[in-house]
Amino acid sequence: MPVSRGVYSCENNLGLAGSVYQCYRYCSTLDRLKEAIRRKRPGLLRWGVVLQHDNATPHSANLTQQWLQRYGWEILPHPAHSPNLAPSDFHVWTLEAPFRRHGFRDRR
C-alpha cells in the first residue's frame, strides 16, 4: 500500500529562551497541529506522524517529550548546521551587517 507523507511547517515566536512557558506554548502548538491533521487528514494520525524539529529548549524539554510519547509521534533527527534546511537562517545576519553602519531616513 502506498504511503503518503506530507510536510507541515509550524513556527512560533515563543518568547524568552529556557522558560517553562515556552514548553507549554510549544505543546499547545502541537495540540493545534494534531487537531488540524485530524480534521484535514484523519488517516495520517492512524499511520503515525513524523515530526522534525531542532533541539531548542521547548523541543527537547521533558514536557514536550512526554507529549510526543503519549501520542506516538516519531522524531526525525535534525542535522546540526545543515544549510539545506533553511538557508536564510544562516545568511540573514551576514546580509544585514553592511547596513548597520548606515542610517536610513524615512522618505515621507
Automatic annotation (TrEMBL):
InterPro entries: RNaseH_sf (IPR036397), Transposase-MT_Hybrid (IPR052709). Coiled coil: none annotated. It comes from Plakobranchus ocellatus. GO terms for molecular function: nucleic acid binding. This is Histone-lysine N-methyltransferase SETMAR. It comes from the Eukaryota.
